[in-house]
UniProtKB/TrEMBL annotation:
Residue span(s) of domain Cyclic nucleotide-binding: 10-130
Keyword DNA-binding: yes
Transcription regulation keyword on record: yes
Keywords tagged on the record: DNA-binding, Transcription, Transcription regulation
HTH crp-type domain segment(s): 144-213
Pfam families: cNMP_binding, HTH_Crp_2
CDD domains assigned: CAP_ED (cd00038)
Highest taxon in the source lineage: Bacteria
Name by which UniProt lists this protein: Cyclic nucleotide-binding domain-containing protein
Source taxonomy: Bacteria, Pseudomonadati, Pseudomonadota, Betaproteobacteria, Rhodocyclales
Length: 217
């Protein structure tokens, strides 16, 4: 488990003895597909590290409209704000498939940091990197139009295969809408025109980006 934690971005730079202590204190948790791991407003007691499976962090308004904040897979972590304050959870997290997680409780984590105060700087640097990424996402939601946000999402998910780019597994249009903060109807209209224009091919299990997407829609 120590070797696994060493690969987690948040813990990068911690000494081997500290990683071993974290591994000893971490509690394994298993959640089936569809299980809610966290709810907005829950008491925050620590962070989770993903070993297997995938999860979705999201917010939902009173009308049931969902905004997907992030998707987490193996090596990712979430709930890290619980390390810094006692405020309740700020987002909900649901398992998209069976997941194996490690829960690192706040007291155990700070007990490890107390053995080497210099490691606090490592933690803060890694958390700042995470916050900057979240700031970029908020900026995109606030300042870019729906096409710009969809463009950014596809580029972030696509993997090069020859002269094409592949998004796999294929997202439904509702999933895309949740990720970019738009209606499914608007996403459907944009995707349909990109398909007609020869930019995208929607295959059963993946989205193929055949050529660079236009700068504007």
């Amino acid at each position: 488990m120590t070797a696994y934690l060493e690969q987690v971005e948040l813990f990068a730079g911690l000494a081997p003895a500290q990683l071993e202590a974290l591994a000893r204190s971490a509690q394994p948790r298993v959640f089936p597909r569809g299980a809610v791991v966290l709810n907005v407003g829950d008491e925050a007691r620590g962070l989770f590290v993903v070993q297997t499976g995938s999860l979705k962090a999201y917010l939902m308004d009173e009308n049931g409209r969902e905004l997907t904040l992030s998707i987490h897979g193996p090596g990712d972590y979430f709930g890290e704000l619980a390390l810094l304050d006692d405020a309740p959870r700020s987002a909900s997290v649901i398992a998209l498939e069976r997941c194996e997680l490690l829960h690192v409780a706040r007291p155990a984590f700070f007990a490890v940091l107390d053995t080497n105060p210099d490691s606090i700087h490592v933690l803060l640097r890694n958390l700042v990197r995470r916050i900057r990424a979240l700031t970029d996402n908020v900026q995109a939601l606030a300042l870019e139009d729906v096409f710009g946000r969809l463009h950014r999402l596809l580029e972030s998910l696509a993997v090069a295969q020859g002269e094409q780019w592949i998004v796999e597994p294929r997202l439904t249009q509702q999933e895309i809408a949740n990720r970019v903060g738009a209606s499914r109807e608007m996403v459907n209209r944009i995707v349909r025109e990109l398909v007609i224009g020869g930019y995208l091919v929607l295959e059963p299990q993946r989205i193929v980006i055949r050529r660079r997407l236009p700068a504007r829609w």
